[in-house]
Amino acid sequence: MARQGQTEMAVLGALSMQPMTAYALREAIRDVLGHFWSESFGQIYPTLGTLEQRGHVRRREGSRPGSSIFVITDSGAARLRELLSEPIKAVPPRNGLLLRLFFGRNLGAEKCRELIREAKADAERRLAEYDTLARAVAVQDRGSPDLPYTMMTVSAGRHGAEAVIAWAAEALALLDGAPEEPGAPEEPGDTLTNGEPQ
């Protein structure tokens, strides 16, 4: 799915939960979807305009003079279902931490330990945030038909953070006995390409 389609999905999805101003929409995407989906603020406003031109959202007068509240229309709900039904496009992984650890012999064990400890601390922070979010959602959305869907995404975040914490303990144990100083580069004949010695 193209980037524009995914932005439309985020915007329409947020509006399907409740009508809101453009500012509230931006905040909702950042604070709620932001736990698992990153969306550029520079894309949200133009996307709202495009969706309005196509009749997928409409404006109504807000409580303050000059403010507008965006409401999803029937065609917008149909467009959202269409977008949600499209196949998920796999994204090639780009993990800066694992890239550094893969070549960690050049950093040395202690620097690698620092990176792993930072990743563990970040995962512990995220786990605490997910726990707080789960409690808040359980209260705020009690009785809402969206509750099981929201909770399963929060649960996925919790499991991801827990997995990083468990991995960090295992990774730190693997570094026991590794050379503390960065290692010298290997001779060209010692490197492997496609599993075969050069």
Question: Could you tell me the number of beta strands?
Answer: 4
How much is the average pLDDT? 87
Write the element-wise H/E pattern from the N-terminal end onward: HHHEEHHHHEE
**Count of discrete domains:** 2
Model regions low in confidence, pLDDT < 50 over at least 5 residues: none
Number of helices: 7
- CATH topology (level 3) name of the largest domain: Arc Repressor Mutant, subunit A
- Tell me the span between the first and last alpha carbons: 40 Å
Oligomer category: single chain
- As a whole number of angstroms, the C-alpha radius of gyration is 23 Å
At the fourth level of CATH, the homologous superfamily of the largest domain is Winged helix-like DNA-binding domain superfamily/Winged helix DNA-binding domain
Task: Give me the side-by-side strand order of the main sheet.
Answer: 1-2
Which word captures the global form? elongated
CATH class categorisation of the largest domain: Mainly Alpha
Content-based structural category? mainly alpha
The CATH architecture category of the largest domain equals: Orthogonal Bundle
**What fraction of the residues are assigned to beta strands by DSSP?**
5-15%
Largest sheet: 2 strands, antiparallel
What share of the residues lie within helices?
55-70%
Pfam family, one: PadR
Protein name: PadR family transcriptional regulator
Domain Transcription regulator PadR N-terminal: 11-82
InterPro entries: Tscrpt_reg_PadR_C, Tscrpt_reg_PadR_N, WH-like_DNA-bd_sf, WH_DNA-bd_sf
